[in-house]
Design brief:
The protein is 42% helix and 15% strand. With 252 residues, the protein is of the alpha/beta class. The structure holds 2-phosphoglycolic acid.
Length: 252
């Protein structure tokens, strides 16, 4: 039985003081939530160390939003896997559509990042998703298939238990448009079958596949009730403790 995993992607929001108060509020609210759901917060880099200290005695886990695939060197502005580990990160979001489109990350780079994260004992939340144009051209499955095959190239079966896949249709991110539960479930089933083809039935049965894209307290329950939707990657609605916690509760 797969456990639900709710992750909050804060994106470029919240300075240190604001991060502190949001993490404190989430931590407090979590005291009343049973252990049936895993919760991850992904604040900006500047709040990670403070976040890790605040979350020491809490079940809430910490993730970063990106990293570089090289170990160190002349890469101005970049952050390495070992830097993330050293401040207490357990997870890292990789291949987010904003990284793919605004910062030109391609499948080959994302594959290198996934491998570096795994070899550094960071658990990737690996994002895939189609644009509206691709969906309307009936290319959703082709696009997702390419992102997954190229993203996971060379990653052995033994590492798959450490990867979460997040299906995030680009047209649903930050737009207020959510995939219907049936639309999302259809793609989740496609991803699970693809993972079975690439790895094995047991990897496919156990892998966590989150949905992301305008997940809110008023739509999370019906999405999370779908048999192949194992959690959510939440953007806008994770910036307030109340709405994030409502989504967590709907997963319980
Ligand atoms: P959103 O973002 O919930 O604001 O649509 C989700 C994401 O980008 O991960």
């Amino acid at each position: 039985m797969r456990k639900k995993v709710i992750a909050g992607n804060w994106k470029m929001n919240k300075n240190l003081g604001e991060s502190l108060s949001l993490i404190k509020d989430i931590k407090l609210a979590m005291l009343n939530i049973s252990g049936k759901v895993d919760v991850i917060v992904c604040p900006p880099f500047t709040s990670l160390e403070t976040g890790a200290n605040l979350l020491k005695e809490s079940p809430v886990k910490l993730g970063a939003q990106n990293m570089h695939f090289e170990d160190s060197g002349a890469f101005t502005g970049e952050i390495s896997a070992s830097m993330l580990k050293s401040v207490g990160c357990e997870y890292v979001i990789l291949g987010h559509s904003e990284r793919r489109t605004i910062f030109n990350e391609n499948d080959e780079m994302i594959n290198k990042k996934l491998k570096k994260a795994l070899s550094s004992a960071l658990k990737p939340i690996f994002c895939v998703g189609e644009t509206l144009e691709e969906r309307e051209a009936n290319r959703t499955e082709k696009v997702i298939e390419k992102q997954i095959i190229e993203g996971l190239a060379g990653i052995p079966e033994s590492e798959m238990k450490n990867i979460i896949i997040a299906y995030e249709p680009v047209w649903a991110i930050g737009t207020g448009k959510t995939a219907t539960p049936a639309q999302a479930e259809e793609v989740h089933v496609f991803i699970r079958n693809l993972v079975k083809r690439l790895y094995s039935p047991s990897v496919s049965d156990n892998i966590i596949i989150q949905y992301g894209g305008s997940v809110k307290p008023d739509n999370s329950k019906e999405l999370l009730n779908m048999p192949n939707i194992d959690g959510a990657l939440v953007g806008g609605a994770c910036l307030k403790a109340d709405s994030f916690v409502e989504i967590i509760k709907s997963a319980c």
